[in-house]
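QA checklist item 7 of 12: single-chain prediction sanity check.
[x] sequence parsed
[x] length recorded as 263
[x] structure emitted
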Amino acid sequence: MYRFLLSRQWVILTVVALLLIPTMIRLGIWQMHRYEERSARNELVADALGAEPVPVEELTSPGHTVTSKQRYRTVTAEGHFDTDREQVVRRRVNADEEVGFHVLTPFVLTDGKVLLVNRGWIPADGPSQTAFPEIPAPPSGRVTVTGRLMPDETTEASGIKNLKGLPDRQVMLINSEQEAGRLDARVLGGYIALTKPEPKGGTPEPVGRPGDENAPLNYAYAIQWWLFAAGVPVGWFILARREARDRAQAAAAKETETAPAPV
């Protein structure tokens, strides 16, 4: 009744089914790993954003590499903005995906060290790509700033090429080591995304809070792949039963047609 399973068509179908099952199981496991990784990152971000603000020099220093646990921690610093050595970071987008610049302003601490401050986004509405854009001035004099601590940007982490030969006072990446050489100063590792004081008139547009990665979606994908894996043998069994039934019905009909007529 099931000899048809040895046919070329059914052997190929069975081999494909046997290959699909472990493949789908592995895809489900991979999605589950992605779910765990994203959940862990979301927890780190939530912990960092919920932590009490601390002085910036408690978490970073010149030459320091900001760790994943320190990223997004709220820090404070006292000093003054050095707008004479301000720069802009090219090809940055705002919440509406408009391309413009991030404003990078050195902030000189009371002890003489320098903290890099990303004051936010401005549009690229200058007369040309080489012209330095007009930037709203930060508060003058001695102020206290608050922001989220961020690690130095690299090409490997961001995918942004660190192009050379850019117009004066324009950069592609925010990198404290690079800025230490340019400023000839002791620059704290990493930088901060400014949250306070808020800019007058809403510009520069503050960098948005980090959002949660959609970890539940990966969990759903994992369950989906495992359901597919379970469905393969069920589908194969249903197809085989249907094939056997159709063949049995065809054989019975043939026997009826060839049977001798009663006298």
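[x] summary fact logged: The first strand starts at residue 54 and ends at 55.
[ ] second reviewer sign-off
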